[in-house]
Amino acid sequence: MFVVELALIGAAVALLPLGWILLRVRSDRYRKLAWLTMFLTLDLVMFGGFTRLTDSGLGCPDWPGCYASSSPFAAHASIAAAYAAMPSGPVSVMKAWIEMTHRYFAMAIGLLIVLMTAIAWIRRWRGQPLPASPWWPTALLALVLVQGAFGAWTVTLKLQPVIVTTHLLLGLGLLAALGLFAARMTPAPQREPAAGRGSVAALVALALLIVQIALGGWVSTNYAMLACTDFPTCNGQWVPPMDFAQGFHLWRALGLDTNGEVITQDALVAIHWTHRTFAIIVIAYLLGWAWRIRRVKTLTRLADGVLAVVVLQFLTGLSNIVLQWPLPVAVAHNGGAAILLLLVVMLNWRIASSRAAAASSAESSPVTA
Fold it and tell me: Which keywords are on file for this protein (predicted)?
C-alpha cells in the first residue's frame, strides 16, 4: 500500500512543473518540458550532494519507503526509536526528511521522463512530426531505471563507496543526456566554419572532466575531503605517506579496508591527494581549451561559462580545505561540477553538429569544373 502512496506523492511533485508548462507555455511544450526536466535533474544532483554531505543517505535505512511507510510522518515512531538507541547514528527526523525529499524529487523526474517517452511514441504511431527520435527518451528512461536500482543499492548496501560513486556518476550521466536531448530539439545558432573544428580537443576535455568528477565522487563517498588539511602541501608535505592499494580498492565497506578494519589515514590521503593533483591537469587544460575556442562567436558564451565555473570550482575546492568543509561550499562544489559537465557536453555537441553540418554542406555543393 505504501508503494502506491509513494507513487502518488511522486506524481503530485511532478504535477508542479508539468502544470507550469501547461499553463504558461503556449508553444514548443515538449521541448521546454525537456529543458525543464534537465534543470530539475541538475537540482536533484545538487540535492543528492546535500543528502550525502549531511550524512542523510541512511536517514531511512530501507527502500523505497521509510520504515515501510510513505513518509517520515507515518514512520515517526520507528525513527524516534532508532534515534533514541543511537543519537549519533544515521537516523533522525531531519535526516529522514532529507532522504525522502530526495526520493520524492527523483520519482517526480522519473515520471516526467516516462511522460516524455510516452508522448514521443504516441506521436510516432500517429505519424505526427517528432522533434527527436522516440528512442532518445526511451534511452533516458532506461538510464533512470538503472539509476533507481543504484539508489536502492546505495541504501541496502549501507553507502558502499563504489555504489554511491556509481550512483553519482549515473545521475550526472542522466543530466548530460537530458541536456543533449533538449539541445537536439533546439534550433542551433548560425554556424561558423570554425565552430566545427577541434572535436578531438573537446572530447579530451570531456574525458578529463569525467575522470576528475569520478575522483571527486570517490573523495566525497569516502569522506576524505579533510585528509589533507592545508594547501598547496598536504599535511605539510608535497608527497605525504599514502596507501593507494587500500584507498582505491573499489569493493569494500564504507570506512573499512579490505580486511574489515578501519581504513587508514594514509589511504584517505591517497584519495584526496590524487583528486587534488589531477585537478591541476584538468584546470590547466580546460582553461586553455575554453580560452582558445571562445574566439568562435557561436561558442563564446559556453566557453566563457566554462572559464567562470572552472575558477569557481578552484575557489570552492580550496575553501573546502581551508574552511574545513563547510556545507554550503561543499554543495556548491558538487553543483559546480554538474554545471561544468553540462557546459562541456554542450560544447561537444555544438562542435560535433557544426562539423556534421559543414560536411553535409560540402557534399551537397555542386562541383564546378
Answer: Cell membrane, Disulfide bond, Heme biosynthesis, Iron, Membrane, Metal-binding, Oxidoreductase, Transmembrane, Transmembrane helix
Global pTM? 0.93
Among 232, 224, 230, 130, which Cα is nearest to 181's?
Answer: 130
Alpha carbon of residue 39 to chain centroid: 11
User: Do 144 and 64 fall within a single domain?
Assistant: yes
Q: Does a structural domain hold residue 330?
A: yes
Please write the tens of the pLDDT for every residue from 267-321.
999 999 999 999 999 999 999 999 999 998 889 999 999 999 999 999 999 999 9
Contacts of 29 by beta carbon, 8 Å cutoff, 6+ apart? 21, 22
Same domain, 132 and 31: yes
* Residue 265 CA from chain centroid, whole number: 28
Q: Determine contact, residues 344/302, Cβ cutoff 8 Å.
A: no
Amino acid identity of 186? T
H runs (alpha helix) in 127-243: 135-156, 161-184, 199-221
Which among 213, 226, 192, 246 has a CA at the least distance from the CA of 341?
213
Measure the CA–CA gap between 344 and 341, rounded to whole angstroms. 5
Is the CB of residue 262 less than 8 Å from the CB of residue 154? Answer: no
Assign 3-state DSSP to the chain and report helix, strand, coil percentages, each to 5: 70, 0, 25
Is 34 found in the same domain as 20? yes
Smallest CA-to-CA distance from 211 within 165, 144, 242, 253 is with: 165
Same domain, 207 and 182: no
Q: Which domain holds residue 152?
A: 1-187
Q: Which tens digit of pLDDT belongs to each residue from 68-117?
A: 999 999 999 999 999 999 998 899 999 999 999 999 999 999 999 999 99
CA–CA–CA angle 226, 103, 122 (5° rounding): 130
Extended beta strands in the chain, E state: none
Please state the domain count of the chain: 2
Active site residue 363: no
- The CA distances from residue 273 to 234, 236, 237, in Å, are 7, 12, 11
| Active-site residue (options: 5, 99, 192, 363) | 99
Is residue 177 situated within a structural domain? yes
